[in-house]
Amino acid sequence: MKKKPLPVVEVKIEKLVHGGQGLGVLPDGRKVFVWNALPGETLQVQLTKQRKDYAEGIAQEILRSAPERTQPFDEAYLSTSPWQIMEFATENAQKQAILQETFAREKVAVPEMTFVTKGPEHHYRNKMEYSFWADDHGLHLALYQRGTHGKQIVAGSSIARPEIDEVAGKICTVLQQHGVRGSQLKTVVLRCNQAGEVVAALFAKDKDFPVIKELQAVCKGITVCFSNPKSPASVVTKELYAYGDLTLRDTLLGKEIAYDVHSFFQVNVPVFVAALEQIQLLSSGAKDIIDLYSGVGTIGIPVGASVLVELDPHNVAMAKHNAAKQPVKVVHASTEQALEYITPEACVIVDPPRAGLHPKVVDSLIAQKPAQIIYLSCNPVTQARDLAQLQEAYTVAELTGYNFFPRTPHIESLVNLVRK
């Protein structure tokens, strides 16, 4: 039985919220979260989700436009960078306001915020993931449309480094020339270093995916992987074959850091370096620096940490390579399994995933009371939750927001916690 389409409703937007949507109220009193929306606008909104307490939707028509609204660069902007609809100065102001509101909601006492943006607002991203779509005209790069399971054909993205989109296009052309069908493919992940070198991972749903030698000429290195078609995620079930060198290198505060297409590495290097310089300054007087959730060592190695703790085995291998000439111990463990490295004398650096700190880590930090905690977060909501607990033993001495992801609603924030 065909589902009845959800209604189109008129909504006035009050403000932008964490996550990037505009907040409005439906006639029945429920909150509605709307994409393609700015504060003060009146919109015709196509609802995409209905729940008992709230709804979600996408603005289809702008009845009353905010003066800050701008024309998006990309047709598929909602898929990758939904804040292309506003002036860049407005974006930065909105991110600061969301940060302040997030900490206030958790009753975390913070000093006046510094907000940092650096480098271009477009063509900055050094990692992209594209899907595929095939039709009568051939094979195309594609992105999933926000709020649906459908795909939209694209040639690239205005937030991607141009080298990435160039290589993605070449890969698509080679696949089409060899008669590869869209149903055989999941996605292609591409990474680029500051020198413009590109590596790629092509994820196929077909374990008998053909060997295509022409792929070796498209970039510095490419791996073709079988990824279980029962899972929507592009993860490696088995590497089928590879060409070239999959390792990239960038220099951070004078230290060469190697990573590859499967490693975690910051997507906006100029802004990350600004944050790294701040971390180095804040930790400069520490006797012992411990880097938890360390990845490949992008923070700990440049700032002189003595211990790196990381769970992902691939990141651990790269971290050991990067630390080979440094007096650094690399520990392969989850942070909650390496609590013995949290000591009263240490400066502890944490850069956890979006879920924030594990409860055992928070408890250990409160119990051991290291002299200083430097907390970099890609999710201020979970960071504020953790700080609400930590502030019984610590004072937030400094707060800096970073626009790591221009034209998107994502915010990075750095806090310096000093023991009371």
Structure write-up:
The structure is a single chain. By secondary structure, this protein is α/β, with parallel strands linked by helices. The protein folds into three domains: 8-69, Nucleic acid-binding proteins (OB fold (Dihydrolipoamide Acetyltransferase, E2P), Beta Barrel), CATH 2.40.50.140; 90-120 and 268-419, Rossmann fold (3-Layer(aba) Sandwich); 127-249, OB fold (Dihydrolipoamide Acetyltransferase, E2P) (Beta Barrel), CATH 2.40.50. The protein has eight helices and 22 strands. The chain has helices spanning 77-80, 88-105, 162-177, 269-282, 300-303, 313-322, 359-368, 380-390; strands at residues 8-16, 22-25, 31-35, 42-50, 54-64, 114-116, 127-135, 138-144, 151-154, 185-192, 198-204, 221-226, 238-244, 247-252, 255-260, 289-292, 307-310, 329-332, 347-350, 372-377, 394-402, 412-419. It has an eight-stranded mixed sheet with strand order 6-21-22-20-19-16-17-18, sandwiched between helices. It has a seven-stranded mixed sheet with strand order 9-8-7-10-11-12-13. Strand 1 (8-16) and strand 2 (22-25) form a beta hairpin. Helix 2 (88-105) runs parallel beside helix 8 (380-390). The longest helix has 18 residues, at 88-105. The chain is globular and about 65 Å long. The N and C termini lie far apart (63 Å). The mean pLDDT is 96.
Layout of SSEs?
Blueprint: E1 8-16, E2 22-25, E3 31-35, E4 42-50, E5 54-64, H1 77-80, H2 88-105, E6 114-116, E7 127-135, E8 138-144, E9 151-154, H3 162-177, E10 185-192, E11 198-204, E12 221-226, E13 238-244, E14 247-252, E15 255-260, H4 269-282, E16 289-292, H5 300-303, E17 307-310, H6 313-322, E18 329-332, E19 347-350, H7 359-368, E20 372-377, H8 380-390, E21 394-402, E22 412-419
Parallel strand pairs: 3-5, 6-21, 11-12, 16-17, 16-19, 17-18, 19-20
Antiparallel strand pairs: 1-2, 1-4, 2-3, 4-5, 7-8, 7-10, 8-9, 10-11, 12-13, 14-15, 20-22, 21-22
Helix pairs in contact: 2-8
